[in-house]
Amino acid sequence: MRTSALVIGFAAAMGLSACGGGTLNNIKAGQVGPDEFAILPTRSLSMPPDLAVLPAPTPGGANITDPNPQGDAVAALGGSPERLADRGVGAADQALVAQAARTGSDPAIRQQLAVEDAQWRARNGRRPLERIAGTPVYQRAYAPMALDGVAEQRRWQRAGAITSTAPAPAAR
Q1: Strand, helix or coil at 32?
Q2: What global pTM score does this model have?
Q3: Residue 133 near residue 22 (C-beta atoms within 8 A)
Q4: What Cα–Cα distance (Å) separates residue 134 from each residue in 40, 66, 120, 126, 130?
Q5: CA distances from 142 to 114, 118, 120, 121, 162 (A)
Q6: Cα atoms found within 13 Å of the Cα of residue 70, Cβ hemisphere only
Q7: Distance of alpha carbon 19 from alpha carbon 172, whole angstroms
Q8: Cα-flanking dihedrals φ and ψ of residue 89, to 5°?
Q9: Distance between CA atoms of 137 and 55, rounded to whole angstroms?
């Protein structure tokens, strides 16, 4: 009797331990198909007041019936959805952009970084036990590259850099 109770208890414990899942940080783990909540309905068709002033069609461009959830949210909160349009770099940021681009920029930097990141993850991928358990390894893989904000701030302050928005270092 005790043996069968022990076996049932062990089986129940093993069954419940499998319920952990580990999908909190692994977003793609539980997805098997499309997300039905990601589908946005289009706006209803309407006749414009004057057909002569319609803009020229732009292949691949936006349509007036396309959903614009960000613009709708801004309008619902009393803002102007036109402010969401990309108007380039603002006048206040021109000097910053000029300083950052002084040595030129690579237009394919995102693709290059994606390739380098894929190579890094291939070299520092999951260990066999992590593969079996399906645990995420993001934190461990990128730990050597993490920046300690407080230590970096102190390093810049010791170097004499002006850090006006940084709090004063704590007294020791």
Answers
A1: coil
A2: 0.33
A3: yes
A4: 32, 39, 19, 9, 6
A5: 14, 12, 9, 9, 29
A6: 5
A7: 47
A8: -85, 130
A9: 50
Query: DSSP per residue over 86-107, as a string?
Result: ---S-GGGHHHHHHHTTT---T
* Termini Cα distance of the chain: 65
Query: What number of residues does the chain have?
Result: 172
Q: Mind listing the pLDDT tens digit of every residue in the chain (172 residues)?
A: 566 665 566 666 555 555 555 555 666 666 677 777 777 777 787 888 888 888 788 887 777 777 888 888 999 999 998 888 888 888 888 899 888 888 888 888 999 998 998 888 778 766 777 777 766 677 777 777 888 888 888 898 899 888 766 666 555 5
What is the torsion angle, in degrees rounded to the nearest 10, for the CA atoms of residue 71, residue 74, residue 80 and residue 84?
-50
- C-alpha 41/C-alpha 20 separation (Å) is 36
Cα 62 off chain centre by: 24
The two structure tokens encoding residue 43: 């706006």
